[in-house]
Amino acid sequence: MTVPPQATEPHTETTEPNGHWPLPDLAARALGGAVLTANDESFAEKEHLIRPYPVLHQSATFGHRGQLYDGWETRRRREPGHDWAIVRLGAPGRVGGIVVDTAYFTGNYPPEVSVDACRLDGHPSLTDLEAADWHTLVPRSTAKGDSRNAYDVDFPGRVTHVRLNLHPDGGVARLRVHGTPVPDPDGFADLPLDLAALVNGGSILGASNAFYSNPVGAITPGLATSQADGWETARRREPGHEWLDIGLAGRGVVRVAELDTTHLKHNAPGWASIEAFDGDETFTLLPRTALVPDTPHRFVLDNDRPAVSVRLNIFPDGGMARVRLYGRLTAAALAGMRERFEAR
Length: 344
Known about the structure:
The protein is mainly β. It has two domains: about 30-180, Sandwich (Jelly Rolls); about 185-335, Jelly Rolls (Sandwich), CATH 2.60.120.260. The protein contains two helices and 21 strands. It has helices spanning about 125-130, 330-340; strands at about 35-40, 60-65, 65, 70-75, 85-100, 110-120, 135-140, 150, 160-165, 170, 175-180, 195, 205, 230, 240-260, 270-280, 280-290, 295-300, 305-315, 320, 320-330. The protein is globular, with a radius of gyration of 21 Å. The two termini are about 35 Å apart. It comes from Glycomyces harbinensis. Pathway: Nitrogen metabolism; (S)-allantoin degradation; (S)-ureidoglycolate from allantoate (aminidohydrolase route): step 1/1. Its EC number is 3.5.3.4.
């Protein structure tokens, strides 16, 4: 039996009307994303574009630049051309959808936008980026004010940077670049790594319940900052238990599991177990084990069998700040990762 790729609607700001929520935001600051440069930020700073939380706004609040906006806003353009900002993706990969959110920009939003992308591995300079070979992800398209403008993307290559273009000028609150991470396999060759990590190619395949938070948070980098930064279910009122399905970066052997309940003081699960899946085979990685609130748990696993995905079961409900599954990819999986990385 393989893990079914079923997913529930999360109760979060990242839910998209075109179904992109299972694809993480590759530009997220939590993954290492950054707004590197912009040609103009006269009214509001470019860094606001990748803030993780919902847009904040208070009307008739003015600073020395004018109305304060939680977003990026350029001056009124009086000459030919357009405004732009370049964003480095925190997790380079294949892009499936773009969201340009113009929340609270009503008389000053760009009537049209476009998005370009390039691939420059390593740590390119701004000069390198200016000379890069840029490709179109979103052609020049109509945008609405005070709206979440969602655009599907059909581009097969690995992307490291995107350029948001405003035609001709205006303000954008948030930019979301939804896609699938494609990691550099060189980091997997000799070291055991977290095979569940989003930045390494792990993914959320499904969740029985995601009422309070997007389960993608459970496999993001770093420590949780609050109980909302992870996966948390509603209170279960019927028999059974909740679960989270995680696709590994590739077929690999998991030797250490970390289940972190940090910040979950009164809503941590009482117990947890982990099942592993490899084709039609199912086996236990971690038997049902008691958990403690607000605590990182590390379990050394007696396992030498490879798997492609796991199911974390929590009993009966609750939350998990982070899930880490340390191990090594098989030689075939590593070769497949290299093939995806080198594809152009």
